[in-house]
Design goal:
By secondary structure, the chain is mainly α. About 65% of the residues lie in helices and about 0% in strands. Helix 5 crosses helix 10.
């Protein structure tokens, strides 16, 4: 006759076990089981309480506090300054600019009415969207193609050198970038001098308003394509080589492997960067265009950022400048939400989940 040992309902029962009569363990073992589960009464056994989660993640939380402080100081607190868009703001009414906000006269929607009635504003909006679409069509696919090209290079040293050479212009300032293009495509540049030496008339592409938008796009490609290459190469590094080997054994060539393995792996990253790029549609390069404004004229180079500078900040009409910036921010937010919704419809996560 076998004898079964009945565990005691107390310290002798293991944590999380039930006693023979079906009741949960009591005593020290029951409290230990509750602590390990991290649950309070009414919580599921798999959920951790706030205090436990805080103790577990406190190191990571402390590491993020400086970044959170920077975001609050430089991104969220300045949002309160948008109130000057509804005022005739005069910073000289007080020694403290914050106090001057309360002492400036209230004008309501007058600044917005002035903006929408200004033909120069709508011309700047038109130039902004034209530049955005050009950069989206001509600039955005180039980093993807270059990343695929570099990823196909077999020798690691050649791949590293090519990536470093393409990434180097990202660290150049726009002053240096414009200077390099001036030395190549300007009236005294290499191309113009070579044409004159062979009996032809020199050209000056840097002062031609007709091709200025394409020139600006080319400058952006040369400067920032290397940054996009790094992002897409990081996504490609997560693709298992076994997929390529299995596809090759099934008879898929290089183009078929790229179409069915590489591009699907890049699709989530492409969707995310595309949403961010659409959200940044109204910011097409302030410093870059301001440096070349005198050479091609305001008709070809004025965008929303330069319009705000010349018509608002430079003339110290701060309320007008704030109103134009607020319009730009609202439109940019709408574009982000729309693009993110399109990404969801395509089955991608986008900036945030549904």
């Amino acid at each position: 006759m076998s004898h079964s040992t009945v565990p005691r309902s107390g310290a002798g029962a293991k944590a999380g076990e039930m006693t023979p009569d079906g009741s949960p363990p009591d005593g020290a073992a029951g409290r230990a089981a509750g602590r390990r589960a991290g649950s309070r009464p009414g919580q599921g056994a798999g959920k951790l309480g706030f205090r436990l989660r805080f103790r577990r993640d406190r190191t990571l939380i402390l590491m993020t506090l400086p970044a959170i402080a920077l975001i609050l100081v430089f991104n969220y607190i300045p949002v309160l300054g948008n109130i000057v868009a509804f005022q005739d703001y005069d910073p000289y009414l007080s020694d403290n600019g914050f106090v001057a906000m309360f002492e400036s006269p209230w004008t309501g929607l007058e600044n917005f009415q002035r903006i929408f009635a200004d033909s120069e504003f709508w011309h700047a909006v038109q130039n902004t969207f034209v530049l955005f679409f050009l950069q989206l069509v001509l600039y955005f696919p180039i980093p993807v193609g270059l990343a695929l090209l570099i990823n196909s290079v077999v020798r690691p040293r050649v791949r590293a050198v090519a990536q470093a050479v393409m990434y180097l212009p990202h660290f150049f300032s726009w002053v240096l970038v414009v200077t390099v293009f001036q030395q190549i495509f300007g009236g005294a540049g290499i191309i113009a001098q070579t044409l004159r030496q062979h009996g032809h008339q020199g050209i000056d592409l840097m002062t031609d308003p007709g091709i200025f938008k394409f020139l600006v796009t080319a400058e952006g490609v040369w400067k920032d394509a290397g940054w996009g290459i790094i992002v897409f190469l990081a996504a490609l590094s997560s693709v298992s080589p076994d997929l390529y080997e299995a596809a090759a054994m099934d008879g898929a060539g290089r183009w078929r492997r790229m179409w069915h393995i590489t591009l699907p792996a890049l699709r989530p990253v492409i969707a995310l960067l595309l949403v961010l790029r659409v959200g940044d549609a109204l910011t097409v390069g302030f410093e870059q265009l301001l440096l070349q404004r005198d050479s091609v004229g305001p008709g070809a180079s004025d965008v929303l950022d330069t319009y705000v500078w010349w018509n608002g900040i430079r003339n110290q009409d701060f309320g007008y400048a704030a109103a134009a910036g607020l319009v730009k921010g609202v439109v940019g937010l709408g574009l982000v939400l729309t693009a993110n919704k399109v990404a969801h419809l395509m089955g991608e996560q986008g900036v945030y989940k549904k």
